[in-house]
# Entry
Amino acid sequence: MNNGAIAHGEAGLPAFPLFPQFVAVELPTNVFLMDRNALGQSVKTRVHPIRAWQGILTPFANDTEAKQVLRSLAADRPIAVDGGRLVPMPESAMMKVQDAESRMSEMSISFDVLVLEFEPPAHPWVFSLSPPIFQRPQRHHPHLRSDRLLELPSRTLHGFCVYSASEFTFESSQPVIPQFLAQVSIFLGKHAVWMRTQRLFGMGRKILHDGIDLSTVASTIPVDACWQRRPATFTTWVGYWPGTGAENGANHLLLDPNKECWCGKGRLYKDCCLIWEQPLYENAK
# Structure
């Protein structure tokens, strides 16, 4: 993929004044959707975005702001976003201190992200090119989209589950991409919290590794405990993801079938994922 910028502002202005760091880039060709047919079987399909945008997002300016923003995230309060930075609200200093704050250091992480636009009403997709975010090392990540794939020469990246399309809607009076980037910035802030608060748990909720220094995992944990596909010892990485999550799994059946599907393809739920989710989850009862 070409990282070179292409001027796409009118009269020399950035395409997105609220996110001037984002520029149009060459469309990637190896983008795939792992969809399901009516029988619930996986079907891999190449998809074709109409535009691609790339830029840097840094959710937290420093550790102090990260801790203040976390308090708002944990309380499901609205978050202000300024060019990708999550802005602490004045009242956050008076809000409840979160246990996770003690583990939040070096929080000013920058993400080089790629946003793909599709023909409306489909929602955009987003991937982190650097640091790369994908499921193999982060297989217990609670909010990745295993159905959205960007295949690169060195690895396959997974898209973010930024929001449920059945719950979040764009303001029709504003461009979609800046609104989407604001949501992505909040997602990446939550991701940074999740990364810093991970612990490796074994059977009986025994902590095998505190997660603070991940470089020591390979030397302190038996290889068959955490890296094999079917380890002899059950393990799971658990981190703190602040805020209330959207409906997922069998709870999707509670969604209004006449409203937009949660998946973001832009179809009504009854014409989209309900077709395979209803028999799947009802048969599992």
